[in-house]
């Protein structure tokens, strides 16, 4: 859509004052002949001479006056020309801003259309769940109807929109009508997890669930999420939240217990919330994790999720479970549920890290219906180091068809050798099922070309919105004491070279905050600013306004500062440039993700001093480096989503 703005400048007569004067100042005429007849010849002669003398005296004055007026008119016209140029420039800027705004609105409108389609189809699927739970249709019929909706997602949003406003009979009849034009497209994936942004956020899992699910749906897959109904949920972004008017029962501790079911849509993703009735206290805490009965809480939820799938008749292609909290679904699925209509379903486990694994007494497995005697074995759930305990995360690895390990920097060999936290043997045995995926970010929120938070947007084609001003930013969730000392050294070194620093943290540690306060007092430098509260909007401004971002961690699971910095044309520089944590190890290169290879080779070994020197001494090389970086796509939609889709396809073929 092109918009042309034309500006016109009022046309003025050239030198208007001179033109006017020339009309009045014609050469004086000699005296009229009638008057001359009354004068003597000598008088006439003298008078004519006097007239000529007066004319000669006035002539230089007239010329000087004409020159002065011409000069004034030249200045006037020049001023008018400058004003016209300024007006044209203002109109040009307004035109560009208007075009950018139109483009942003068109992109937003397209995103809303896509999200509406996802939202509508998710609402329809949730309505089918309600019909099954209320006994209106059978689970087998529900399975067929879900496939119809999944296959009909290629239709326009208008085709699906009216369905939800029909009564049950009309609703079912219209669904059958859709089957004529439907065809299979993509996978049906159900996440059974404990976090989802922005509903419940504790760690990197929350943004991963929402970001990946949205990306997968944009690529033609259907994604649903099942969550516990915590008392601490943020329900502001849940569209159409409602309670299904029936209870369903799940097994726990030898009995069937009632649960309330709530459904809604988050960013186009259908979400089901499970709320225990008898065990209502399990999810009534102020926090998500960190309680002595966490195993019981999440085991109850995992078993209830599988019972709900049976009751609702859902038969997804993939059940996607996460970390140890829902890893128990692996052995539950294969030992108890696979024969209940899930023969075509496969299990995929994602591990954000291996720090937390959950070791428990074997007899507790019986709470959810598992047989402890069958699972306390080295090749199943028995912990590798404490043989009298079961390791729940290990069970997830053993019983999953594929295991995705999230890392934006480390290679497969590096993780297996150094970051297994006691699971190295298990990971080595099951290394063929391991897949590595980089983290990502939401490109609809983090894109300098359409970022509404920035005072002026910019892109690789027009970098006016990002001026090089030698600002170094640092955004960190937590930082070690040793890192603070390293940070001090870097700041002392760079501030002497006229570099400005801005730090923003989100640490809740009082001791760390005090350390940074002392550091700020020691510096007393107006070129260094500290902000001790994390602010999302301010983080956009810091990253976009910085040329360099110091990163305490390159594999930043929570904030993804290195990936966002690259997108915004700021170089991510490791706090410890010589630290082996950021280096690639020879043969491991072939087992790394594409994004990790790029980050390692381009930025991981660059020190702050080297970056500053390149900006100062070789700006063209720096600009080329950063423009190349900005053209990379490290969002959820890129390599991360592709790796997951490939893993789903491989798991389905098993």
TrEMBL record:
EC number(s) on file: 2.4.1.21
Coiled-coil boundaries: 81-108
Any one Gene Ontology BP term: starch biosynthetic process
Pathways per UniProt: Glycan biosynthesis; starch biosynthesis
Catalyzed reactions: [(1->4)-alpha-D-glucosyl](n) + ADP-alpha-D-glucose = [(1->4)-alpha-D-glucosyl](n+1) + ADP + H(+)
Residue stretches making up the Starch synthase catalytic domain: 188-427
TM stretches of this protein: none
The entry's keywords: Coiled coil, Glycosyltransferase, Starch biosynthesis, Transferase
Cited InterPro entries: Starch_synth_cat_dom
Domain of life: Eukaryota
Recorded GO MF terms: alpha-1,4-glucan glucosyltransferase (ADP-glucose donor) activity
Protein's UniProt name: starch synthase
Naturally occurring in which organism (per UniProt): Sesamum latifolium
């Amino acid at each position: 859509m092109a918009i042309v703005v034309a500006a016109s400048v009022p046309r003025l007569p050239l030198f208007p004052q001179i033109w006017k004067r020339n009309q009045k100042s014609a050469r004086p005429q000699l005296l009229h002949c009638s008057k001359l007849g009354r004068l003597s010849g000598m008088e006439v002669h003298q008078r004519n001479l006097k007239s000529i003398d007066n004319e000669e005296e006035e002539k230089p004055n007239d010329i000087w006056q004409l020159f002065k007026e011409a000069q004034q008119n030249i200045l006037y016209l020049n001023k008018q020309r400058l004003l016209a140029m300024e007006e044209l420039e203002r109109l040009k800027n307004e035109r560009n801003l208007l075009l950018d705004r139109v483009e942003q609105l068109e992109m937003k409108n397209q995103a809303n259309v896509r999200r509406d389609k996802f939202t509508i189809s998710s609402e329809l699927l949730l309505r089918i769940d309600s019909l099954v739970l209320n006994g209106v249709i059978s689970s087998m019929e529900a399975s067929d109807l879900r496939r119809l909706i999944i296959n009909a997602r290629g239709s326009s949003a208008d085709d699906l929109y009216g369905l939800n406003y029909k009564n049950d009979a009309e609703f079912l009849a219209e669904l059958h009508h859709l089957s004529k034009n439907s065809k299979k497209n993509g996978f049906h994936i159900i996440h059974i997890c404990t976090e989802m942004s922005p509903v419940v956020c504790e760690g990197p899992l929350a943004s991963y669930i929402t970001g990946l699910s949205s990306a997968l749906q944009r690529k033609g897959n259907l994604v649903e999420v099942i969550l516990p109904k915590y008392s601490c949920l943020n329900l502001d972004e849940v569209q159409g939240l409602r309670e299904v008017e029936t209870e369903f029962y799940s097994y726990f501790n030898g009995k069937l217990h009632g649960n309330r079911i709530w459904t809604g849509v988050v960013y186009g993703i259908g979400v089901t919330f499970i709320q225990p009735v008898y065990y209502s206290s399990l999810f009534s805490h102020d926090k998500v994790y960190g309680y002595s009965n966490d195993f019981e809480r999440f085991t109850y939820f995992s078993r209830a999720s599988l019972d709900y799938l049976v009751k609702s008749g859902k038969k997804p292609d993939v059940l996607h479970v996460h970390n140890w909290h829902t890893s128990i679904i692996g052995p539950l699925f294969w030992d108890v549920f696979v024969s209940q209509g899930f023969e075509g379903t496969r299990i995929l486990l994602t591990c954000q890290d291996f720090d937390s694994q959950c070791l428990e007494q074997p007899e507790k497995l019986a709470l959810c219906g598992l047989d402890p005697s069958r699972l306390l074995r080295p090749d199943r759930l028995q912990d590798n180091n404490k043989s009298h305990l079961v390791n729940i995360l290990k069970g997830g690895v053993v019983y999953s068809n594929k295991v995705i390990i999230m890392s934006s920097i480390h290679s497969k060999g590096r993780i297996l050798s150094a970051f297994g936290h006691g699971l190295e043997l298990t990971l080595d045995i099951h290394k063929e099922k391991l897949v590595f995926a980089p983290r990502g970010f939401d490109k609809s929120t983090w894109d300098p070309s359409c970022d509404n938070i920035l005072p002026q947007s910019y892109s690789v084609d027009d970098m006016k919105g990002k001026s090089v001003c030698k600002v170094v930013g640092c955004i960190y969730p937590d930082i070690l004491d040793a890192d603070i000392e390293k940070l001090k050294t870097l700041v002392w070194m760079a501030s002497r070279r006229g570099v400005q620093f801005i730090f923003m943290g989100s640490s809740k540690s009082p001791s760390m905050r005090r350390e940074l306060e002392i550091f700020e007092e020691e510096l007393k430098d107006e070129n260094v600013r500290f902000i001790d509260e994390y602010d999302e909007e301010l983080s956009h401004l810091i990253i976009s306004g910085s040329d360099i971002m110091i990163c305490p961690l390159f594999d930043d699971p929570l904030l993804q500062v290195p990936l966002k910095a690259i997108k915004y044309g700021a170089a991510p520089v490791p706090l410890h440039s010589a630290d082996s944590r950021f280096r690639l190890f020879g043969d491991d290169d072939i087992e790394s993700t594409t994004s990790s290879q790029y980050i390692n080779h381009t930025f991981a070994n660059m020190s702050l001093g080297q970056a500053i020197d390149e900006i100062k001494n070789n700006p063209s090389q720096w600009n080329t480096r950063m423009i190349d970086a900005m053209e990379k796509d490290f969002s959820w939609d890129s390599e991360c989503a592709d790796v997951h889709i490939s893993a789903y396809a491989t798991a389905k073929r098993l």
